[in-house]
Specification:
alpha/beta, Rossmann fold, 8-stranded mixed sheet, 7 helices, 33% helix, globular, AB_hydrolase_fold
Length: 276
């Protein structure tokens, strides 16, 4: 079942199991974030697989809702198609891609603030846990949400990277572009080097590490993924510390390019079902 609501001008789609209306279970709300040049409709394969599996779990202690919306400058929010293109068409690619994923992370936190009020104004249901899954651009955004919002506990980046500079610098150099102004303004690099997940104390066991206590499943293509290679995530993921109350799993699908095949979807579904 799908319900669309408008929150401060943003169209938000709520996807639920068939028994959602008659249930009183607490809720896990999972944001599903689409990729570059796509829209929220592109996440239907993940949505359907998640809800079908959740609906079959009669003994689950929680219900699942999946939340989608169009990322900034995508789908119904598109303002400038060229801003979504790569360096070959768009000299501001490094700026545009960072601001889109950063803005999307802010949109998720904004919706966490207010979604329950819109869905359950009488307090009839409670969202007890938040999660985010995303593919490609949505995977980058998922990492940023995990780094920025302590309320998000379930995190599934698919073919996305937590280290923006590790991803974008080789892409720039392959196009003959230096990591310097005007393509990489100093003001942009300053923000990235303070807010990128890779700029945070992600290897620490101290409280300042924003990933402590989170349950993270990383799904990546292998060397065949030329757009977001595993090398752009590997060091971060292997060194990431989530502490004794968190969990970290990562699966590298060798031979898989920049795509989310059925086996990757199945791994994401299984991971979320463990939280219900």
């Amino acid at each position: 079942m799908k319900q669309t609501i408008v929150i401060a001008g943003l169209q938000v789609h709520i996807h639920t199991t068939d028994d959602h209306a008659t249930s009183s279970r607490p809720i896990l709300a999972l944001f599903a974030l689409h990729g570059r040049l796509e829209s929220s409709e592109r996440m239907q394969d993940l949505i359907s697989a998640m809800l079908e599996s959740a609906g079959k779990q009669d003994q689950r202690s929680r219900d699942l809702i999946v939340v989608t919306f169009d990322q900034r400058n995508h789908g119904s929010r598109l303002q400038d198609l060229n801003a979504n293109e790569d360096f070959k068409q768009n000299a501001r690619h490094a700026i545009d891609m960072w601001t889109i994923q950063s803005g999307t992370a802010q949109d998720v936190s904004f919706l966490i603030d207010y979604l329950e009020a819109y869905l359950f104004p009488l307090g009839e249901r409670t969202i007890v846990e938040w999660g985010v899954a995303g593919r490609s651009l949505g995977g980058h955004s998922a990492w940023m949400v995990a780094a920025a919002d302590p309320r998000v506990r379930v995190v599934i980046p698919m073919i996305g990277s937590p280290d923006y500079l590790e991803l974008i610098e080789p892409r720039a150099k392959s196009n003959g572009i230096a990591v310097a102004a005007p393509h990489f303004p100093d003001s942009l690099l300053k923000v990235i080097r303070s807010k990128s997940p890779a700029a945070l104390p992600y290897t620490s066991k101290e409280p300042e590490n924003p990933f402590l206590g989170k349950r993270i499943l990383v799904l990546s293509g292998g060397a065949a993924d030329k757009l977001v290679p595993w090398a752009a995530s590997q060091t971060f993921v292997e060194e990431l510390e989530v502490g004794p109350t968190g969990s970290k799993e990562y699966i590298v699908f060798e031979g898989v390019g920049h795509a989310v095949p059925p086996e990757m979807l199945s791994a994401a579904v299984d991971f979320v079902m463990k939280a219900l």
